Amino acid sequence: MITRHSRIVRKEQSNLSSSIVSTLKDQIIHWHYPPEHRLTEAELCKKFDVSRSPVREALRVLASDGFLKKLPNRGYVVRQYNTGEIEELYEVRLALELYAVERLATKGPYNKADKEAIERLKKTWTGLLNGSSKKAEELARLDTLFHEALAHALGNRPLLQHLRAINERLMLFRMIDFAKADRVESTCRQHLDILNCIAARDTRGARAAMQRNIKEGQNNVHAAIKDALARAYLMRT
Amino acid sequence: MITRHSRIVRKEQSNLSSSIVSTLKDQIIHWHYPPEHRLTEAELCKKFDVSRSPVREALRVLASDGFLKKLPNRGYVVRQYNTGEIEELYEVRLALELYAVERLATKGPYNKADKEAIERLKKTWTGLLNGSSKKAEELARLDTLFHEALAHALGNRPLLQHLRAINERLMLFRMIDFAKADRVESTCRQHLDILNCIAARDTRGARAAMQRNIKEGQNNVHAAIKDALARAYLMRT
DNA sequence: GTACGCGAGATTGTATACAATTCTACCCAC
DNA sequence: GTGGGTAGAATTGTATACAATCTCGCGTAC
Known about the structure:
The structure is a homodimer. By secondary structure, chain A is mainly alpha-helical. The first copy, chain A, has helices spanning 16-29, 41-48, 52-64, 83-106, 112-129, 136-154, 157-178, 183-199, 203-235; strands spanning 38-39, 68-71, 75-78.
């Protein structure tokens, strides 16, 4: 692991541009910048101690992915979703996951790898139900992994990728969600419900369980969203 | 409209980089390049008569959006979806549109703008049912517009954007689909069914009609896909 | 004949120079 | 005091120079 500068992390044998993309994206996802915060090339060059070429390439990518908004001849501003758009993201998630879980419950016998994956999820979430308290961040990560594992088991790559793009933007709100004391237990039960329905080929039940799971998260976030934004603003570096 | 070079079209007051993005994306979408076709910076510089800076920025964006695959230190290759992935894209479309149409049928009275939009769609597709034959390309465009209008009426921007990203990749296959003689009439009926179900608040009916509509397209494409690829290859410039 | 190594060419990665555009602030006319 | 115009600073857009890395073929050793 080589670091050219303390602020930028170079993973594997990547280049400066992709390092800047992942660093900036991570910061935006975790709300280190307020909405509409302006980013100029010169500022980022100084911050990362690189020339404008990789910075420009990174900014274009981030703008294309919706993390930045490009102002014509005036640089970029951070694009944060507001309350309404966050709710809308939860809905898109719901649309994709309801479909995935329905297909998964319908399609019948899995191959060995899928069966093992489902078993592993069952074990993980049964374990979480019985004690072993974790931090909100870790729980959010495990929750994301659970939902992405289902999409993966369905074997639909594009669906998984769209889901990942959405989950990236919702990561902070998932953490807020799991900061609620009673949220872990209900999530465990919902996840086990989902898995059981899939195993029992109960299509309607699987959909219903998934809907409960996602909607509860959405409601928690909706209630806590102003608090969330305030915390995020404090957490920024 | 200023053109710096015959092969590249500059829209509005954009820059070279975004012009290259849209030009290349359009060519890839219409299969002007075979899968795995290699693109080098130097080649594109010559082709568009620009320097490497805008080309590099464009390539990174296209790679980030999944239109190109980046080989480490070896440039880029065109990323075309194979038969299986195209089917998967149709499934993601189905997931999003089933959800949208269900919500639309459920949510009750629209505002005036939505009502008008629905009325316009009804008129368009009633018109197409009664004669007025069009080319496959125009029909594909109208079909895409129909489906995106529904997502727009729902008022969920992220959902619309994900749908658009998918539709971009499916454009050529929609055209193939509409080249089938009897496809126009069945599409018109299905679209009118969908609109009527929405107006009647018939959630289940709306879902069923949408499912018929998308699945029929998917089946047509599946049957014709080898033919499609052959044509696309011939259509390339 | 095969394997290894070296080197030239090709290609991408990064930095910098220059051009074009836009914003801003100041000055002057009225 | 207000309005307009202009100069210069700030910022992005484009081109090019140089560095680093990889590819591939050729020659030589064994």
